[in-house]
Amino acid sequence: MSIAKFLSILLASTFIFPTISSAKEPGFGPPFGAAKAAGDKAVTLPTVIHTTDNFPLSYVNYSWDDDWVYQSRLIFSFNDNDRLTDGLVEFWNTDLEIWEPHSRNEYVSGADGKLDSLTNYRWNSGWDPNSLATLIYDDQGRLVHSVSATYLGEWVNFVRYNYIYDDDDRVIERLIENWNAADEEWVSSSRTTFIYTGELISEQLDEAYIANQWEIAKRTLFTYSGDLETEYVEQVWTGTDWLNNQRHLKEYSDGLLNAYTRQSYNEGNWTPFWRQVIPSYDSEGRVLVQETHTHNGIEWVNGTRSEYEYAVPTDVGDHGDNPLPEDFSLTQNYPNPFNPITNIEFALPVRTEVSLDIYNIMGQKVQSLVKGTLPAGSHTVTWDGTDLSGVQVATGVYFYRLKAGDDIETRKMLLMK
Questions:
Q1: What is the pTM of this model?
Q2: CA proximity to 360, closest of 289, 287, 410
Q3: C-alpha to C-alpha distance for 328 and 377, rounded to whole angstroms
Q4: Which residue has the higher pLDDT, 376 or 414?
Q5: pLDDT exceeds cutoff 70 at 335
Q6: Which value, to the nearest 10 degrees, does the dihedral of the CA atoms of residues 8, 151, 19, 236 take?
Q7: How far apart are CA 80 and CA 376, in angstroms?
């Protein structure tokens, strides 16, 4: 599974059309199975089949205000065939301390399980239609058009995405058109061309349609380590030359994405301004927690945090050579001593609420790695040596404390630089 585009507080938005950035899957939501295979060899569009195997049951978004506080949550529903049917968005009312409805998405899939349409509703003492997305496939099952409409007493066209493929079923062009209501026709707005070197995408060229002609606007250059995308640089066209604009850096551990940092280019230097970190995955390689931080010129500052809950795998009763653990356990981190990355493994005999936190020798919490419900099984969490503000902690002794239901265990580890 490829990396879905990370979304932190996007829950309240209307439908997000399939978008392509580097070798990533079109973004239909949060990083459900993000980084199981952290980068495809080519830009391809998926069959868009969402089930409880690859989609969360819910996730909660927090914002930072001296601590993580509720902001929004999304709860998904599935039918008897395990197909996604509904997504309810709620926002936290701080004064009343209750969740209040904001919007919901209604998903309709065909007999083959592929998503045919998505309707977004907004809450206004009732559910009012807001936007509609219709997905159209060719006879080979490839997504070729996605059409958006807004509701103004009736459905009115808004934007259309069109995809062109090569003989290897790779997307080589995406054309975006806006609806011209006066002439009742689609008008070209922008297009993106994808260029490959071997099996990997090496360049993405973006153009804008201005005064009846295509004008070069931006290009993106990609760098890999093996099949993993490690960097891509966005450059803007000045009319005579390419000028660096942004750089995106990705860090992995055992093939799983740990951090994604954005930098801006100014006077010959790259300056970090935003990053996303994924401190923990479940045993299926699905994201459990992801956070965003912004850089204030001196240090990283907490921004948002999202926590995901998934269904227990359907094969939970048949684990072959890997049966479910009989007891709760927390093992010694490895490596230990470490600098700055270490792994923490624990086992859960049953599905339960779990928290895994890091403390310094003063008893102060420095990081929260897991907070949510996990299925029974063995789990591995990686700590990158950063605190809640995203700053690298100092050399010294730290404690990691696991609470699972009524079970609590604490172990010691040593960070040496």
A1: 0.70
A2: 410
A3: 10
A4: 414
A5: yes
A6: -90
A7: 23
Look at 26-30, 168-172, 250-254, 316-320 and tell me which has the smallest mean pLDDT: 26-30
Provide the CATH topology of domain 312-417.
Answer: Immunoglobulin-like (2.60.40)
Count of CB atoms situated within 10 Å of the CB of 72? 22
Cβ distance 295 to 273 under 8 Å?
yes
Burial class (CB in 10 A: 0-12, 13-18, 19+), 125: exposed
Helix (H, G, I), strand (E, B) or coil at 36: coil
CATH code of the domain made up of 10-311: 2.40.160
Q: What does the block give as tokens for 90?
A: 């709620």
CATH 2.60.40.1930 in the chain, residue ranges: 312-417
Q: What are phi and psi of 382, to 5 degrees?
A: -105, 135
String of DSSP letters for 376-406: SEEEEEEE-SB-TTSPBPPSEEEEEEEEETT
Cβ contacts of residue 58 below 8 Å, gap of 6+? 73, 74, 75, 76, 308, 309
- What is the model's pLDDT at position 48? 55
Token pair 């942004």 is found at 246
